[in-house]
Every structure is written in C-alpha cells, then in structure tokens.
Write a structure and sequence with these properties.
By secondary structure, the protein is an alpha/beta fold. Helix content is about 30%, strand content about 25%. It has helices spanning about 5-20, 25-30, 35-45, 60-70, 80-85, 95-105, 125, 130-145, 180-195, 210-225, 245-255, 275-285, 320-335, and strands at about 45-50, 70-75, 110-115, 155-160, 200-205, 230-235, 240, 260-270, 290-295, 370-380, 385-390, 400-405, 410-415, 420, 425-430, 445-450, 460-464. The strands form three sheets. It has an eight-stranded parallel barrel with strand order 1-2-3-4-5-6-8-9, surrounded by six helices. It has a four-stranded antiparallel beta sheet with strand order 10-11-16-13, with no helix packed on it. Helix 8 (about 130-145) runs parallel beside helix 9. The radius of gyration is 23 Å and the shape is globular. The chain binds ligand G2I. Ligand G2I binds near residues 119 and 265.
C-alpha cells in the first residue's frame, strides 16, 4: 500500500478541517516555527551561516553548534590570498578543501572569502606593483575560483576596497595603484573561472546610507549598467552599541539595483542592546526580499576576533545567549522570500466575464500536495552549472525529489544542497536535512555541476 499517499490524504483532510474551522493562521505559523537558526532561515528561503576557523573543527562543542544551527560556512582565513598562494604560483588548498568537505558532508553551502583584499596578502604580493601585481592578482582569482568551481555559493571577489571617512572613494592600496579597473578585472576573471558562483563585493562601515556605502552603490550601479558581472553585495556589519536607522533602507537601495545582498560578518558589541541589534539586523534582512542570508563572524564569543566584546550568539560553553533567541524569533516572524501563490481572489465574481475556454497553462500552479522545479543553466564548452529552484505546492512538503534526465555524454560531478543518486542518464536529487520541509509556496534552491551539456533538461519534482 502506498504509505506516502495515505499520509498525504491525512494531511489534506486535516488541512481541510482546519480551513473549515478558520484555523489557517495557526497552521501557517506552526509550519514556520523553526527551532534552529538554519531551519528558521531555510523556511524563509534564506541561509544562516558562520565564519569557521579550520582548527576549531576538532572542538566538539564548537562542531556540535555549527552542525546543529548553521547551513552555510565561510572560511575565516583559509581561502585568503596568504593562505592559498603562500609563494607565487604555488597554491595550497588544504584548509579551504577541509572546510568545503565539512560543508558538503553536512548539507551546508559555502561562501568563499576573499579572492582579493589589500590585507592578508602573501609577502611576495605585498612587495609587487604595477603590471606584475595586476597579472599576479588576476591569475590568483582565476586559479582559486577554478579550484573551487561548482562548490561555492558566492565569492567575495573583492573585499574592503573603499576608504573610510567622507570621501566615498577607493582605499589606497597596491592593488588600487595598478589602476581603477582592477575590481572589474577581478569580477570578469572570477565569472570566467566559476560561472555558477554569485560574485559579491564585500565591505564594512556600510551599515546605513553614508559616504562609503554611497561610493560602493555608485560602483555597483556603474557595473550593472556596463555589464560587469556582479551579483551581490556583502554588508559585514561589525556593529557597536547602536544601529543606523536607515540600515534596512541601505540594503534595499542596493537590492533595487538588481543585486542580492547578504549580511556577511555580523557581530555586535555585548551589553544591553546586543539582542535588540541582532534582531533588528535580522528583521532588516527578512524585510528585503533580495537579502539571501546572514553570516555571523564566528560561532561562540570565544571564537570571535573581537575577544572580550562577547560579540556572538553563543557562550563559550555552548549555551545560547539572549541574542540567539532574538535572532531566532526574528527569523520565525519574518516574511518568506516569495509570497504565497495562494492569495485569495476577490469575493464577488466579475459580472460579465465568461469562464475561460482556453486550455490550462503549460505550467500550472503547484498542486495541493506536489512541488514544481525549474532549472537555470550556466554552460560553457564541456561543462555546466545548474541551479534548480524547488517550489512547494499548497500543502507544503516534508521532503522532495527532483529528477532530471541528462543527454548522452553528460555527467554530474558535484552537487550542493541536495544528494544525488546516479550521475548519468536519469539522476535523482533528494533534499538534505535542512531544506526538505517547505511551507506552502515556499522555495528552496540546490545546484549541481557537470561535464558535457545539459541543454534542454526538464526537472520533475515529487513531494513527500
Ligand atoms: O577583521 C575582521 C574581519 C574584517 N573583514 C574581513 C575579514 O576577513 C576579517 O577577518 C579577520 C579574521 O577574523 C582574523 O582571524 O581577519 C583577520 C586578519 O586581518 C584575521 O586575523 C588573523 C591574524 O591577524 C593573524 O595574525 C593570524 O595568523 O588571523 C590569522 C589566523 O589566525
């Protein structure tokens, strides 16, 4: 007997009963009350991440919290220039690879940080200038982005290139002195090397509308108008005891340029306001539909670069702080990334409109107990990255499977935010632990990389 079918029937009957009793609100809020940061963020179509120091992966308390609460990681130092290319042309990926493996084994996505930055350059680059430095920098971007191709959700391609203070201009650095176009050259090289990664510009002291954030805003607007490949802007958000009142408005003006925004290095000075500021930042992200996720810069207070500021969500012992609860509540209260497709229509019928006689559209809205999937492809000669969007039907999902049938010669080499069974022909992707449960109309994404061509693939989605 089809066990799933019985379960679905039971869910439908229960939902219908609840509807008849006018209990839709209860049903909806129950479905979205996550009990971990990652579950609550995922229910709203976002990720919740932490910066991870490789050496901490052997600390049990640390790893327990990391795996329970977070579904995205950023290497705190392991993918920086000094770590990945300690001598010119000699690349070292041990630390970065270890973190990627941990992420993949635990269903987490990875933000790459950072391809180019004026700080933490290896000694050999610090003493270079001009064309030699420009070439070395672009080679660095190409090599590192190629090594991690298909494994990175978003790269901080360039970090902290704008000056503090009122100028709104670029920071002086050896990279800046190679010519003002060094940033766009880096973005173009990163796109060519990893077409599936979102490419971000990342900076701090951009926590509101100010001269520095406006300088960055103007650069992003210019890049978008000239087709320089930029997809996202990271707002580090290393915060003190107050938050600018236009924090959310600032995120929104960037989103309105057509880029995603992310909170990338959040930490907040401890004290009376800490929980409130954490919650306000979380709410701001939830209120901006292009804000795709939040990362705290570390896991526990004692893991933080800010030492005695006690700037994070967990005590050293592993206990949750008040700030943790305020963030979790703000995630649970926030709107999801896509509005529910089941908005009720007007209560009075149109007076003269006849019922439609045309056949139903080719992509019907999700059925009562199903899901739909759509794919977008980034292809190059001999390879591709596929991003798949899964949308739950009106009954939500407890889990989902997406099948694709690849053309002959194509093969899946890498998958993120799902588990693949098979690599050629018909390949079935199943949700990972944090993204199987979706509310009605909610969307989640996974991806896979492959060799050959995936042109024309049509995904089919099955919910459980
Ligand atoms: O400074 C806070 C962050 C600001 N935005 C960019 C981030 O990349 C930056 O992270 C910090 C790390 O949290 C620190 O862990 O970047 C620092 C370097 O500027 C990192 O500190 C370095 C120490 O300076 C080194 O002495 C040490 O070898 O960490 C290294 C690895 O432990």
């Amino acid at each position: 007997m089809n066990h799933k079918r019985v379960l679905r029937l039971a869910v439908t009957v229960a939902a219908t009963g609840a509807l008849a009793a006018g209990m839709t609100m209860t049903l909806t809020s129950t479905a979205s009350a996550g009990t971990t940061l990652k579950a609550s963020a995922a229910e709203k179509g976002r990720y919740f991440g932490a910066a991870v120091a490789g050496q901490k992966l052997s600390d049990n308390t640390y790893v327990t919290i990391l795996n329970r609460e977070f579904n995205s990681v950023v290497p705190e130092n392991d993918m920086k220039w000094d770590a990945t290319e300690p001598q010119q042309g000699r690349f070292s990926y041990t630390g970065g690879d270890r973190l990627v493996s941990h992420a993949q084994a635990n269903g987490m996505s990875v933000r790459g940080h950072a391809l180019l930055w004026h700080a933490q350059q290896p000694g050999w680059a610090q003493s270079m200038s001009g064309t030699a430095l420009r070439n070395a920098a672009i080679n660095h971007v190409t090599q590192v982005a190629t090594h991690f191709r298909g494994k990175i959700y978003a790269w901080d391609v360039v970090n902290e290139a704008f000056a503090d203070g009122g100028s709104g201009g670029r920071r002086d650095s050896n990279l800046q002195r190679t010519g003002n176009d060094w940033i766009e050259a880096a973005f173009r090289a990163a796109r060519a090397a990893d077409p599936g990664a979102k490419l971000c510009y990342n900076d701090y002291n951009t926590d509101g509308i100010n001269a520095k954030s406006t300088g960055i805003y103007n650069m992003v607007r210019d890049f978008r108008s000239r087709g320089v490949p930029i997809d996202c802007v990271g707002f580090q958000s290393h915060l003190g005891t107050s938050l600018a009142s236009d924090y959310q408005a600032n995120l929104q003006r960037f989103a309105d340029l057509g880029v995603d925004v992310q909170i990338t290095e959040l930490d907040v000075m401890s004290g009376g306001n800490q929980a409130n500021i954490f919650a306000a930042v979380t709410r701001a992200c939830m209120n901006v539909s292009r804000c795709t996720g939040i990362t705290t810069w570390g896991v526990r207070d004692c893991d933080s670069w800010r030492g005695s500021d006690n700037a994070l969500l967990f005590e050293c012992s592993g206990n949750k702080k008040a700030a943790y609860t305020s963030v979790l509540n703000a995630l649970n209260a926030g709107p999801g990334i896509t509005p529910s497709p089941t908005t009720p229509g007007p209560t009075t019928p149109g007076p003269t409109t006849p019922p439609p006689t045309t056949p139903p559209p080719t992509t019907p809205p999700p059925g009562p107990d199903g899901c739909t999937a759509s794919v977008s492809l980034n292809s190059w000669t001999g390879g591709f990255v596929a991003s798949v969007k899964v949308t739950a039907g009106s009954a939500g999902t407890n889990g989902w499977n997406v099948s694709v049938t690849l053309p002959g010669g194509a093969s899946v080499t890498n998958t993120w935010s799902a588990t693949a069974s098979g690599a050629t022909g018909t390949v079935r992707f199943t949700n990972v632990n944090y993204n199987g449960r979706l509310g009605a109309g909610q969307v989640t994404e996974f991806g896979f990389q492959g060799t050959g061509s995936a042109a024309g693939v049509t995904p089919t989605c099955t919910a459980s």
